[in-house]
Amino acid sequence: MRVIGILAVGATVAVFTAGGVSANPGPAREQAPTTCAAPVAGQPNGKQWPAEPGLTIDPNAGYTATLSTTCGTMTIALDAARAPRTVNSFVFLAGEQYFDHTKCHRITTEGIYVLQCGDPTATGMGGPGYSFPDENLAGATYPAGTVAMANAGPSTNGSQFFLVYRDSQLPPDYTPFGRVSAGMNVLTSIAAAGAKDRSGDGAPAVDVVLDSVAAVRN
Question: Do the strands 161-164 and 146-149 form a parallel or antiparallel pair, or are they unpaired?
Fold first, then answer.
């Protein structure tokens, strides 16, 4: 089965597939992650900005993001050279504590295999108030470990992003801007629990909250 698309409608990712159910079933949905804790006290700040932040990162430098979640910590190597505006926005939002206390609102276990985060409303409709163009799409692929932007169509990137936990077929429409460099076991453990409604696409069965997200220059 070939996945036709994954896009944020408004900001909610919608998945369209050809041929119905994936020929490659996703991970079992009975297994819960081994370590998930209650979230740190606090609420998303929901800040809004009228325009994309100015470029303050060095595209020639390396940057690392640390996602401290209720189910464990994941580290992302950010690709500033190939996606400077995307990494700049991510670093900016992390510095504004925009991602802190936000819930990862979507897991897919059929056709494509992603965990989607970055929406302070946890509805799939939230964003920072600005958008910016796509980057790094030429020849883009989405193997396990890829971190890419969700969108509502061309050049509508905001704050929502997805982490690929299993090789996924997607058209090159979603800016890849990093890779999981540590904590892949956390991501696959979350995915193993599947969706809360036991469908192939919905809210994760376990609450996955980003207690904090920090991005630093290496």
Answer: antiparallel
